[in-house]
Amino acid sequence: MRNKELLFIFCDGSSRGNPGPAAIGITAQTHEGEEIFSIAEKIGIATNNIAEWKALQRGMEEAIARDELKVKFKLDSELVVKQMKGEYKVKNSGLLTIKQSCEKLKTRFDFFEIIYIPREQNSRADALANIAQDTKL
C-alpha cells in the first residue's frame, strides 16, 4: 500500500515577468525515485512568490486527494520554506491567504516536512513548470 511510505514532493513555481504569466510544476517520487504523479499547470498572472506558494498548495492538495499520509516537500524557494516553517513572517495578504490554506492542509498528514533544496536538485519540477508555461491553450 503506497500511502504508508514517505512520499517526496518537489514543487516549483515560475512567473515570466513579475507579475506575469505563471505556472507550477510538481513531481512526487518514492525514495527510489519512481514518479508517482506529476503536475504541470498554468495558474494565470501571478508573481514568482505566489507561483511558488501555489505549487506547494497544489502539491499538498494532490497528495491528500491520493490519500498520501507521509510527505516531505522539497522546494528551491528558501522564502516559501522559511515562511511555511514560521521563520519568516508573511506580510503580503495574498501570500498569507495561501499560507493559511497550506497550514490547514498540513494537518491532514500524519507526517509533514518541508525543506529547502538547491535549484539544481529541483530540475524535474522546474521542467514541469516550464512545460506548462510553454503549452498553448
Which structural category fits the helices and strands? alpha/beta
Instruction: Indicate the CATH topology.
Output: Nucleotidyltransferase, domain 5
Please give the domain count: 1
First and last CA, distance: 37 Å
Radius of gyration: 14 Å
Spatial ordering of strands, largest sheet: 3-2-1-4-5
Instruction: Describe the oligomeric state of these chains in a short phrase.
Output: single chain
Could you give me the name of the CATH homologous superfamily?
Ribonuclease H-like superfamily/Ribonuclease H
> Any idea of the CATH class?
Alpha Beta
Record field, number of beta strands: 5
Helix content, binned percent: 25-40%
Largest sheet, in brief, is: 5 strands, mixed
Global outline: globular
Compute the number of helices.
4
Q: pLDDT below 50 for ≥5 consecutive residues: which ranges?
A: none
Per CATH, the architecture is 2-Layer Sandwich
Taken as a percent bin, the fraction of beta residues is: 25-35%
Overall pLDDT confidence: 96
Question: What is the H-and-E element order?
Answer: EEEHEHHEH
